[in-house]
Structure formats: structure tokens, C-alpha cells
Sequence to fold (118 residues):
Amino acid sequence: MATQGRGIDAAFDFAGAPSIREQAFAVLAPGGRRVLVGLAGSPVTIPEDSGTSFRRQTVVGAYGSEPKHLARLVRLAERGRLDLSRSVSVTLPLAQAHDAVRQLKERVGSPVRIVLLP
Fold:
């Protein structure tokens, strides 16, 4: 094992899938942090809470960004330094926003990002 059995210091969950959340706890080192970024829409469970407390592991939530971060991303994309095209699952007209929300909610085709065009 890359950590010689110690575990990892931080596990970042960008998927929001319960199975990923469980795996994250299994590989955390003592004092490790599980960072929840992806939104699952379901309760977060902490397996074996006494062991988690004993090992001083923490759960941290991270959501969204500040307006300055979005402005920075837009500048990078305008300069051609940031290519987000591979993370776009589908592009739809704005008139189909209701369908885009349904696809995300029902995870139709496992969407990562849906772009709405005016």
C-alpha cells in the first residue's frame, strides 16, 4: 500500500455517492479528514462513530464558491487556459431547463454538467 498501512490524510468526495463516502472513511489515517464536496441528497452516515472519534477523524463540508472564484474561472476560460468541454455531459436550449433539472435529479446518463444555451 502506498501509505504503508497508515491511511490517507484527506479523502475528497466529489461524487456524492454513498459508496464513495463509505470508502473514504475506510482509508483515512488517524487525524484524517473526509471532505464532502459532491452533493448526494441523502444523509451522511459515520460508520463506527467510536472508532472515528478515537482516531480523531473529521468530516468537513465544502460547497460552492465565492463570486471572485467564478470570475477567475471565466478569465481562464476566455484566455484558453481552461477547457471544460470534457466535463459537459450535454448542451440544451434554455427552453429545456426543466428537462435538464430532471436529468440531473434522476441522473439520466450519469450527467456531470449540463450547459443551457440562450
Q: What stands out?
A: The CA atoms of residues 74 and 82 lie 9 Å apart. The chain has a mean pLDDT of 84. The first helix runs from residue 18 to 27.
